[in-house]
């Protein structure tokens, strides 16, 4: 019996020695946290006129890397291929304004949400009297658009399925499709639309600002990396209580100085 228990103990020790330490431990050892993102989502991640990636989520990640004592490396990746890129080790985690959906959760683990947003509408000004909510767009006479691979596209196809849909690889092209009268409405997250209506709307868009979905945004990791999730969740809890989160949030959502960097 003692021999049997000793064998079990040795086996357990061997297995524990083979266990993967996790993304956070690997980043600390390498000195770099690699994060995949598509930098086209104002004000979360975007490229300024100097070619630098800036934004709300970028600043959260900078604070995260600083807490780990490592440098931050942002890996630009198209949004529709960002999950496969994570799973093939192109970077360590996803930080790209990703909505935590049940479908995505089957493929990834997610941290606790760092913000909650919802889908809203940018509508052609000529339709302001006709379109009061997403339900009014659910008709074959209307053409709607969003960015491919996002929850905007998912919501368009699920809740506004009767309308004609054409997606684009980036938000700007989709918004301009409405500005130019080729589409009737753009479906996207509220924080982006509140900026886009003034920055790209050219006075031709109406912003319907009442969110019609619930969308928690979170960081995405490979499945099974619970130690890293524990660290990230504790980090998010810390910055929510020490003033860091409030300061970063105010910079991007309550102030407008950053818009000058995008001109």
Automatic annotation (TrEMBL):
InterPro entries: Iontro_rcpt_C, SBP_3_CS, Solute-binding_3/MltF_N
Keyword Signal recorded: yes
GO MF annotation terms: ligand-gated monoatomic ion channel activity
Signal peptide as annotated in the record: 1-21
GO cellular component: a single term: cell envelope
Subcellular location: Cell envelope
Limits of the Ionotropic glutamate receptor C-terminal domain: 32-255
Gene3D superfamilies reported for this sequence: Periplasmic binding protein-like II
Keywords in alphabetical order: Signal
Domain Solute-binding protein family 3/N-terminal: 32-256
Family, as annotated: Belongs to the bacterial solute-binding protein 3 family.
Protein name: Amino acid ABC transporter substrate-binding protein
Lineage: Bacteria, Pseudomonadati, Pseudomonadota, Gammaproteobacteria, Pseudomonadales
């Amino acid at each position: 019996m003692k021999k049997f228990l000793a064998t079990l103990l040795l086996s357990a020790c061997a297995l524990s020695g083979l266990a993967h330490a996790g993304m956070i431990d690997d980043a600390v050892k390498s000195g770099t946290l690699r994060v995949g993102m598509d930098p086209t989502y104002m004000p979360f991640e975007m490229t300024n006129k100097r070619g630098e990636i800036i934004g709300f989520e970028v600043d959260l990640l900078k604070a995260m890397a600083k807490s780990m004592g490592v440098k931050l490396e942002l890996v630009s990746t198209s949004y529709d291929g960002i999950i496969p890129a994570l799973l093939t080790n192109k970077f360590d985690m996803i930080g790209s304004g990703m909505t935590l959906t049940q479908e995505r959760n089957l493929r990834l683990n997610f941290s606790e949400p760092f913000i909650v947003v919802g889908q809203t509408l940018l509508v052609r000004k000529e339709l302001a009297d006709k379109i009061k909510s997403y339900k009014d767009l659910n008709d074959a006479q209307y053409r709607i658009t969003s960015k491919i691979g996002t929850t905007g596209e998912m919501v368009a196809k699920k809740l506004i399925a009767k309308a004609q849909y054409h997606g684009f690889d980036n938000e700007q092209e989709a918004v301009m499709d409405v500005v130019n009268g080729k589409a009737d409405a753009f479906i996207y997250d509220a924080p982006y639309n509140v900026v886009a209506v003034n920055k790209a709307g050219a006075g031709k868009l109406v912003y319907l600002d009442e969110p019609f979905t619930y969308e928690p945004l979170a960081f995405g990791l490979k499945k099974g990396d619970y130690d890293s999730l524990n660290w990230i969740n504790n980090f998010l809890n810390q910055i929510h209580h020490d003033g860091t989160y409030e300061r970063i949030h105010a910079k991007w959502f309550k102030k407008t100085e950053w818009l000058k960097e995008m001109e």
